[in-house]
Amino acid sequence: MLKRKIDDAIEQWQNTKSNQGLLITGARQIGKTSSIEAFGAAHYKHVIKIDFVEQPQAVEVIGGATGLDDLIMRITALLDRPLPKEPALLFFDEVQRCEDAVTWMRYLAQDDRFDVIYSGSMLGVEAYDFRSLPVGTIDLLEMFPLDFQEFCWGYGLDASLWNEVERCYSAREQVPSFLHEKMLDLWMRYVLIGGMPEPVQVFMNTHDTQEMRARQRSILAAYRADITRYVKDRAHARQIKTIFDAVPSQLNKENKRFVINGVTEGKRYAQVASNFDWLEDAGVVIPVRRSAEPLFPLGLTEEQGNFKLYMSDVGLLFSTFPSADVGQLLTSAEDMNLGSVFENAVAQELRAHGHERLFYFNQRGVGEVDFLVDGLGLPSVVPIEVKSGKYSHKHAALDKLLQVKNYKLEGAIVLHKGNVEQDGPITYLPVYMAAFL
User: Fold this and answer.
1) Cα 102 from Cα 89, distance rounded (Å)
2) Count of CB atoms within 10 A of residue 108's CB?
3) Which pLDDT belongs to residue 128?
4) pLDDT tens, 281-327?
5) Residue 90: closest CA among 106, 103, 72
6) For 83, left (φ over 0), alpha (ψ -120 to 50), or beta?
7) What is the mean pLDDT of residues 216-226?
């Protein structure tokens, strides 16, 4: 089983909670159920699982609960054994299938026989009615596809090597050449495979790229099917699917900005904003919004209707590329245009490491800079440029942005395939060091 960072977060919840339940959300098929089941097996003698996909009758049976005693009776009706005498883990899986499911926690918090964990895709998030829950009733964790460090764990990278890379990042020292080449190779594999657990495991077990890509495409198909399942208005669902399917082609354009008129039949952004919000809430896309000025906090500088959309997982994006690109990536990627996939992987890393909202900059007279992020813990803005080719030291827009005195930018980062380097206010970092930003 793949090691996941959320495993430690679940254990921390168990050690610090009082009566709170735990809700783990995130896109479909990112490993929520596997992590919760592994936690239950390691820490509880008894695990009671109710899966609203595998047990569709449970939606009606439990959905009608009117109080704690009634809820317990309905739970026992779904089990094939009596309730255990010892404290048990009560695990509700795919709770988005059951309207108001999370609100049951106000009953279960009164019962010391259970620790309660919910797993739910953000698809159907409107069913989560938190307003009726007392304060302190439930804790939330959001889960993502495997980040690059988790991917390296899966490949068996020794912890001492990762620690050395992190030390080099902190000290701004060059990574030893042998280790730099190894980390670049892992990064290129990450771009190809991504972080969805099933394709990762398939490739690590079989090294069959076609089987891996088949699993990736089945995930994309499942996402499309979920749009139809959860969006009842057929016209609305069709619009959302059109936007979702357009993400790879939109990223393939020179400036990568999502052109709304190209996929929404001439409608203005205000008329279709909910479609983009739905995909973001579902966890299947990562929006990067345009900032009018690189000033802290960036959330106050957002320009409505101007944004780029990346896939939630870089492997899913690469699976939409022709099969011939796989061989080229695995042999020699020098002639490939990997700009969009490198940027997607970086967006994925930034999102998984605490940057909840991402921005970019594009203004006449300056040009486009790939990312802007608020400094974590500091009232500052950090521009980030991502370079996938040979000419990583050419970045006219970044240079012009740093020269605007009103912005008072202290420096910038260029992520590239080269090693650590400092050139005035610009820090060049290997692209795999996006894991530390």
Assistant:
1) 16
2) 21
3) 56
4) 889 999 999 999 999 999 999 998 899 999 999 999 999 998 878 87
5) 72
6) beta
7) 95
Q: Is 136 exposed, middle or buried (0-12, 13-18, 19+ CB in 10 A)?
A: exposed
Please say whether the beta carbons of 193 and 212 come within 8 A.
Answer: yes
Cα three-residue angle 201-206-212, rounded to 5 degrees? 60
Kindly report whether the peptide bond that precedes residue 87 is cis, defined as omega within 30 degrees of 0.
no
Q: Are 79 and 48 in contact (CB under 8 A)?
A: yes
**What is the rounded distance in angstroms from the CA atom of residue 424 to the CA atom of residue 408?**
15
Above pLDDT 90, what percent of the chain? 69
One-letter amino acid of 300: L
Residues 6+ apart with CB under 8 A from 429: 169, 413, 414, 415, 416, 420
Q: Is the pTM of this model over 0.90?
A: yes
Per-residue pLDDT reduced to its tens digit, 234-264:
988 999 999 999 999 999 887 788 877 667 6
pLDDT at 182 over 70: yes
- Residue 134's pLDDT band, with cuts at 50, 70 and 90, is low
> Using CA of residue 300, residue 302, residue 304, residue 309, what is the dihedral sign?
negative
Averaged confidence pLDDT in the chain = 90
Instruction: For residue range 335-353, list pLDDT tens digits in order.
Output: 677 889 999 999 999 999 9
Task: Return all residues near 132 (Cβ < 8 A) that are at least 6 apart.
Answer: 103, 106
* Max CA separation in the chain (angstroms): 71
- What's the angle, vertex CA 313, arms to CA 49 and CA 139, rounded to 5? 40
Q: What's the full length of the chain, in residues?
A: 437
Report how far residue 30's alpha carbon sits from residue 45's, in angstroms, rounded to the nearest whole number.
Answer: 26
Q: Which two tokens stand for residue 294?
A: 């690189």
Return d(Cα 148, Cα 314) in angstroms, integer.
Answer: 11
CA distance 274 to 235: 13
Spatial neighbors of 124 by CB under 8 A, at least 6 apart, are: 96, 97, 230
